[in-house]
Amino acid sequence: MSVRLRAGTWLQAGSVADLDRADVLGVPLPRDHERVPREALVLRDPSGTVRAYLNRCRHLPIPLDGGSRRYLDDGKRYLMCGTHGALFRREDGYCFEGPCRGDSLFALEVEIDPDGTIWISEHAG
User: Whole-model pTM above 0.70?
Assistant: First the structure.
């Protein structure tokens, strides 16, 4: 997917029509201030609401997928850290199992245009 920018610090992250409830889209973000690559995870929560999180485990600052592109547990219900086995709820990024229990993934703001285009803020809130 090519990344399109719009006014401010927003990035195009695909279309609602293309986002199945079992999918997680990895969307490249600009590098951080130390030039480390970053990625957003865009998904639907159980109610169908589109959410976005920074792809970084709260236990250690590494991508949840560790480069495997596998973001979900076997049941496709929760985001999962492939390194530690931590499980995070889709609706709020809250870790309920694993070494970072009680912490939440860094959420990114989401806006959806009337045509279904998903935009995400490049900065975690």
Answer: yes
pLDDT digits (tens, 9 = 90+) for 88-115: 999 999 999 999 999 999 999 999 999 9
CA distance 43 to 94: 15
Would you state the structure tokens that stand for residue 94, as one six-digit string?
């809250």
The count of structural domains within the chain is 1
Per residue in 33-56, pLDDT (tens digit) is 888 889 999 999 999 999 999 999
Where in the sequence is the domain holding 64, given as residue range(s)? 5-124
Which of 22, 8, 10, 7 minimizes the C-alpha distance to 118? 10
Structure tokens that stand for 99 in this block: 């070494």
104 touches 58 (CB < 8 A): yes
| 108 vs 123: CA distance, rounded Å | 6
Q: Tally DSSP H helices, then E strands, for the chain.
A: 0, 10
Q: Please, are residues 68 and 41 in contact by the beta-carbon 8 Å criterion?
A: no
Residues 6+ apart with CB under 8 A from 123: 9, 108
**Separation between Cα atoms, residue 39 and residue 67, nearest integer Å:** 11
